[in-house]
Structures are given as C-alpha cells and as structure tokens.
Amino acid sequence: MELLIKKIKRKKPIDWLRFLAVWTSAFLTVFILVYILVFVLIRGIPHIKPSLFSFTYTIENQSLFPAIVTTVIMIVVTLVLAVPLGVFTAIYLVEYAKRGSKFVQAIRTTSETLAGIPSIVFGLFGYIFFADWLGWGKSILAGCFTLAIMVLPLIIRTTEESLKSIPDSYREGSFSLGAGRLRTVWRVVLPPALPGVFAGIILAMGRIVGETAALVFTIGSVIKIPDNLFSQGRTLALHVLQLSSQGHYRNEAYATAVILLVLVVGINMLSTSIERKFKESTK
Fold first, then answer.
1. pLDDT tens-digit profile of 65-111?
2. 15 by DSSP, 3-state: which?
3. If phi over 0 gives left and psi between -120 and 50 gives alpha, with beta otherwise, what is residue 46?
4. Residue 7 domain-assigned?
5. Hey, CA dihedral for 167, 168, 169, 175, is it positive or negative?
6. If phi over 0 gives left and psi between -120 and 50 gives alpha, with beta otherwise, what is residue 180?
7. Angle at CA 261, nearest 5°, toward 276 and 49?
8. What would you measure as the largest C-alpha separation in the chain, in angstroms?
9. Domain residues for 57?
C-alpha cells in the first residue's frame, strides 16, 4: 500500500492529465452507450405487442416481421459475397505477394479509400450500376452487392492484420518439414488467425444490419417478405427510418429499434461463441 501511495505521489502533472483524459474518455463513451440503450429500451419496450410480429404488414399492425426476414437474408447473402473475396485477398497480400511491392500498396490504398467513402455514395453507385445498368432494379440482390463492396475493405483489413500477427516461425517450421505454401497457409497460419477473421465478420455484420443510406437507393422500401432476390424489401434499420419519418408511428419505431438492438446483440453473442470454439479447437 505504501509503495502504491509513493508511486501516485511521484506522478508528474502531465501524467495526471493523461490519466484524467483516458478515464474521462472511457467514462463518456460508456455513459453515452448506456444512455442510448436505456433511452431506446424505455421508449420501445412498452409498445412491443404481438401485432408487430404478424406475418404480413398492414397499416393497422405495422408489423416488423417482413423486415426481420429481409435483414437476415441481407446478412447471409452479403457475407456469402464479401467474406470469400475479402479473406482470399488478404491471404494473397500477406502470404503470396511480395512485401512492399507497388501492386500490394496499390491494393491497400484502394481498400483504405473505399473504407472512407460515405455510404450514400455507395448507394448511388449501386443504383446506377446494379439497379439501372445491369437491369436488376431496386432489389435484394442489388442491395447485397452494394453492401458487399462496402464491407469488403473491413474484412480485408481485419483478416490481413490477423494473418500478420501469426509469427513467421510457424511458417518457417512448416516449410522446414516439407510442407508447401498452400498447405502451410491452410493448416498452420489460418487456424490461429480465425478469431481475428471472425472479428472482422462480426464488424461487417453490424454494418450490414445498421446500414440505411445505401439501401434507400438499391433495395427499395416495400415492406413484405421477399419472394426472391430480385424482389424489393425493407430491412429493420430502413423500417425504423420509414416509421420515424412518417411521424404517426414513433412508438412503433422505438419498438422496432428495440428488436434491432436485440438482433445485433444476439448476432454478436452467436459470433463470439463460435469464435471461442475456434480458439479452443486451435489450442
């Protein structure tokens, strides 16, 4: 205890300022998060009723069930499009391409540039290219391809950093035993890097669920269960936006926001459990 008191007394004023800044920032972050969650839950939970989960949407029930189905479809199809391309690109950049080459730098610069483009620009591109030029119209498929382009840089970056965190001694040991590069990547390097890959996928799923601006131009706003990938639809985030903008269904909008929060938390818990199982299997 005396040693702790002496260390505290030895702190310089600049150290106290840094300490105060760090803890103040952490407190404000947690406070804002808790405030938003409590505010939405208090405003939304009292208005959750069975009619919100009706199979079909009407003006009377304001059902969000079609939006839930559309959101799940968007998540699955977008990840099917983006995850293989993002993971394979990261594997090429880290394991196969020459380090420091101009081609690798160009790919990384392009990826970082894509990550900084506003989502509304992606929406306009998706409408012009997928909906208009390819003739898909406003549809689930056009929205999924647009979202896949949006989350691709995130998946590439997180997978790349995860692969870089694996020591080179793993690769050297595998090569010394006669394994080829492909076998080394898939059997030695990729398994311990999977938790980082899943972290990127979780972040991508969060962006897919919460995206609105890009989907306004590409997916439409029809609130029904899609018949196929060329049908229009409305995700939960879009449903909240539409209900709140109309002005007459604010209570239903808050109730939908609660379900959206529950869906996001459920996805994160499921992904975390899968990630934990992979960690245990690779030990």
1. 888 899 999 999 999 999 999 999 999 888 887 777 788 888 888 88
2. helix
3. alpha
4. no
5. positive
6. beta
7. 130
8. 75
9. 50-282
- Is 140 inside a domain boundary? yes
Alpha carbon distance 70, 236 (integer Å): 8
133 and 238 fall within a common domain: yes
Structure token pair of residue 238: 């879009």
Are 82 and 221 contained in the same domain? yes
With respect to residue 200, please indicate whether it lies within any of the assigned structural domains: yes
Question: What separation in angstroms does the CA of 118 have from each of 27, 133, 228?
Answer: 29, 22, 28
CATH code at 252? 1.10.3720.10
31 and 162 belong to one structural domain: no
Residue 157 CA to residue 144 CA, distance in Å, equals 20
Distance of alpha carbon 232 from alpha carbon 238, whole angstroms: 12
> For the chain, what is the domain count?
2
Residue 7 predicted with pLDDT over 60:
no
Are 122 and 254 found together in one domain? yes
- pLDDT tens, position by position, 127-164: 999 988 988 888 999 999 999 999 999 999 889 888 88
Pair 17, 153 in one domain: no
CA distance 263 to 252: 16
Distance between CA 161 and CA 181 in Å, rounded? 19
